[in-house]
Specification:
Elements (H helix, E strand, L loop, with lengths): L19 H19 L6 H40 L11 H50 L9 H34 L6 H24 L10 H32 L6 H26 L13 H29 L6 H23 L20 H23 L3 H36 L4 H10 L9 H24 L4 H13 L1 E3 L2 E3 L1 H29 L7 H27 L3 H17 L2 H16 L7 E4 L2 E8 L3 E5 L5 E5 L1 H5 L2 E3 L7 E9 L5 H14 L10 E7 L4 E9 L5 H18 L16 H13 L8
Antiparallel strand pairs: 1-2, 3-4, 3-7, 4-5, 5-6, 8-10, 9-10
Helix pairs in contact: 1-2, 1-3, 2-3, 4-9, 5-6, 6-7, 6-11, 7-8, 8-9, 9-10, 9-11, 10-11, 11-13, 15-16, 17-18, 20-21
Length: about 800
């Protein structure tokens, strides 16, 4: 019934062959039939799935038709726009042809708008039906799970068990006999094309040969006693491909070949289930053989002790074999199209008991002990307390399945086992995939591996340079794994996968919250656009800084200011590009900025003040990178003017981060603002009696003789005063560069000391005179004190 709408699903959308009115009526009747059937009681989950598929087909067809209608509407409005606009005051009569064309286009716009609205109505009906079907399927699933059947404790179950087993055995024998007679005939009839199976067989042989060659080259070598973690991961991956991939492909080929022979029920279900169990069996055996390595601890990837690895390996293998055998037995004797209540009750109990007994050793603490760091270290559990708590919950769930089977909830007990097994496989697979993939990526990024050397050579890096992009790749892989686990785990518990995918699709395409549409896809595009814009800005800055600026006759400080300005402008443009890609309406953005201004005035005032101050510093340039400044008791060289703060490096090689607003709100001493020259000041005191003229001449001669002292302005010698310690002089010497002050001052002091010593001029030192008042009275008091002592006469 939906064949007329199939062209809409093509990549090149074309107009449906039938009129839209007929298609809309057809889709409406289809949705009416689904709604009528949904209102009837007793729907089974399989019937609900069929109704959901029909509704989804209608929805896809309506979506295609709506897309065509919207495109037509855009084109018609583009044609109609020039005919509607007239200049103000234009009273000239309109041409009849123009008026007729405008009316025709207006009618078509009205017609297409009706199609769009009708499509939106059908989409809304389809979405409502899909939601009702999802709720109905969930209710039917819950009703099936909580349905109480006969208990294995009932004597009637055991009385009926023999007859039901005999009946199931007879059904299996007849199915096997019919399959043996007609199976080869079905293969020889040519109804199934076996060429893809042959191609897959050749592909399997090629994979086997390649895996064998890789295992010989990169596989685990028992002779090696100690290996690096990176080598263990690479060897485990190679051995895993050789041990698991080829058997899995063989099982898949055999399954397709048997499926082509048209096995009758219940053998068709039994064949597919057997293939799935064998694939899981090979995966578990490959995991224990490559990751746990009970007999080769040097190649063990996971941090288990030798005894724990052996215990866990044996327990997992026994569990997967026992679970597969019991599950296939229940499928063979129960799922034959006829009711087998006694077999279902007893089979659920046997399976729950057997699987629980086999699973408990794998959950025991002895099987999860980590390899101790030292021989004397206390044993610890792998994964810590959270893993121990998870194993405890899993064991409790296993034991509860036995109780459920005894109470008659055979379907719930069986579903619990399959859900727990599926969850365990999904979580374990995700963790192993993370471990292997991160190890392989780390190995590929290492400097001593061929991929690492190739990447460094292509990127123009040093051979021992560290690659950093691989961590982002590991993060992306982890996000994908988390997304896969969040989808697969609910599916193992019976949640409808279509509902999960539909919810994720809505999350990616957009969820309306009030009048705002939030879409992960738009956010991703905005982040990508912002990242690309930032990359372009950085490339432009690098080109301007490294190629354009060196060709200009501009100071270094001006170049740094231009570079910082390009950074600010580029980030602002990149932010606007990201906001535009996000699809934010700028009228709403103005409201948001207005609201943010209140926050800026309250909580973000300091940050906004510093940012604006940084922009003013770049424009007015009262300080520049390389200037010697003193601000708020901090003195040093300006290294960088950032968007919020300025970095100053003191002469003790310590970085001081000063807010930009401090340079505008407090006095700043810039020793190199207008001139980079500086003055060296030396104070000198000589003893009284020295020749003043000779001292002045020596000071002037020493300063002029230094090569770094400027001649214009020349050195200045001042005779300050007659001090208490001697004659005080002061020498001013000017240097061209501020950095020369310390060196020139040191040289002048050394030369002055030598010249004054040669001339016999004594450098005065400060002396302190101590005067005691009333010394006579103090002397008499001391004598009286001594005379008053016992035995003073003898003294």
């Amino acid at each position: 019934m939906l064949l007329p709408a199939l062209p809409a699903f093509a990549q090149t959308v074309t107009v449906p062959q039938r009129p839209f009115a007929q298609l809309a009526e057809l889709w409406g009747r289809q949705l009416d039939r689904v709604a009528d059937r949904l209102g009837q009681p007793g729907l089974l989950p399989g019937e609900i799935d069929v109704l959901r598929d029909q509704t989804s087909d209608v929805r896809l067809a309506v979506l295609a038709a709506a897309a065509i209608a919207r495109d037509d509407l855009v084109q018609l409005r583009a044609l109609l726009a020039p005919l509607e606009g007239r200049a103000p005051g234009d009273t000239s009569p309109e041409a009849e042809q123009v008026r007729a064309e405008r009316e025709r286009l207006g009618q078509q716009v009205t017609l297409v708008e009706g199609r769009v609205r009708q499509s939106e109505l059908l989409l809304a009906r389809a979405d409502q039906l899909l939601q009702r079907l999802a709720r109905a399927r969930g209710a039917a699933m819950v009703e099936t799970l909580v349905r109480v059947g006969p208990s294995p404790l009932s004597p009637k179950v055991w009385r009926d068990l023999g007859a039901e087993i005999a009946a199931s055995q007879a059904v299996l024998e007849r199915a096997v006999a019919a399959w043996s007679r007609k199976g080869l005939a079905a293969l020889a009839s040519g109804e199934h094309d076996l060429r893809p199976i042959g191609l897959w067989a050749l592909f399997t042989i090629a994979i086997w040969w390649s895996a064998r060659a890789l295992r010989r080259r990169l596989g685990q070598d028992p002779a090696e006693g100690d290996t690096a973690p990176r080598d263990r991961v690479v060897a485990a991956s190679v051995d895993g491909i050789g041990l698991v991939l080829v058997p899995v492909l063989l099982v898949w080929l055999v399954d397709k070949l048997l499926d082509a022979s048209l096995p009758p029920a219940p053998l068709d279900l039994l064949v597919s289930e057997t293939s799935e169990r064998l694939i899981v069996l090979f995966l578990v055996f490959g995991f224990t053989a490559t990751m746990l390595r009970p007999r080769l601890p040097a190649w063990r990837v996971l941090p288990f002790s030798d005894d724990a690895a052996a215990r866990l390996s044996r327990a997992l293998r026994r569990l997967i074999v026992g679970y597969g055998v019991l599950d296939l037995a229940v499928i063979a004797y129960v799922h034959d199209g006829e009711g087998r209540t006694a077999i279902a009750a007893v089979g659920a109990l046997v399976m729950a008991t057997g699987v629980t007994l086999l699973a408990l050793p794998a959950l025991a603490s002895r099987a999860w002990l980590a390899q101790p760091a030292t021989p004397d270290a206390a044993p610890r559990a792998v994964g810590g307390g959270w893993w121990a708590f998870g194993r405890l919950l899993l064991g409790a769930a296993m034991l509860s399945s036995v109780l459920l089977a005894l109470l008659g909830y055979s379907v719930l007990a069986t579903h619990l086992h399959s859900a727990l097994a599926g969850t365990g496989l999904v979580v374990a697979g995700a963790l192993l995939a993370h471990r292997l993939a991160s190890g392989l990526i780390e190995a590929a990024a290492a400097a001593d591996t061929p991929p690492g050397r190739w990447a460094r050579q292509r990127l123009g890096l040093a051979p021992d340079a560290q690659l950093r992009g691989h961590q982002a790749l590991i993060l992306i892989l982890d996000v994908v794994l988390v997304l896969a686990v969040s989808i697969l785990v609910p599916v193992t518990w019976g949640v409808d996968v279509d509902n999960i995918l539909r919810g994720l699709g809505r999350l990616f395409t957009g969820v309306k919250v009030g009048g705002v549409t939030i879409a992960l896809a738009d956010i991703g595009v905005a982040i990508l656009a912002f990242g690309v814009a930032v990359l372009i800005v950085r490339t432009l800055r690098r080109v301007v800084r490294d190629r354009v600026m060196p060709t200009l006759d501009a100071p270094v400080t001006l170049r740094q200011s231009i570079d910082a300005g390009l950074n600010y402008v580029g980030l602002l443009v990149a932010l606007l590009i990201g906001v535009t890609a996000l699809g934010v309406d700028f009228s709403n953005l103005a409201l948001i900025l207005g609201a943010l201004s209140v926050g800026i005035g309250l909580g973000l005032q300091n940050i906004a003040n510093n940012v604006i101050s940084g922009i003013i510093l770049l424009i007015e340039r009262p300080i520049r990178p390389g200037d010697w400044v003193v601000v708020d008791s901090h003195e040093g060289i300006v290294r960088r003017i950032n968007i919020r703060a300025t970095e100053i490096e003191t002469f003790a090689r310590t970085s001081v981060i000063v807010p930009n607003s401090l340079f505008l709100q407090s006095p700043v001493i810039n020793r190199t603002y207008a001139d980079t020259s500086s003055r060296v000041e030396i104070a000198l005191t000589v003893a009284y009696g020295s020749d003043v003229g000779r001292v002045e001449a020596i000071l002037r001669e020493v300063a002029i003789a230094h090569p770094r002292v400027l001649r214009i302005p020349g050195p200045i010698v001042r005779f300050l005063k007659l001090g208490s310690d001697g004659l005080e002089f002061q020498l001013f010497a000017f240097v061209a560069a501020l950095d020369d002050r310390v060196v020139v001052g040191n040289d002048l002091n050394r030369q002055l000391l030598a010249r004054l010593s040669e001339a016999g001029i004594e450098i005065s030192t400060r002396t302190a005179d101590v005067r005691l008042r009333d010394i006579d009275a103090l002397t008499g008091a001391l004598r009286e004190a001594v005379a008053g002592r016992p035995g003073s006469d003898k003294a």
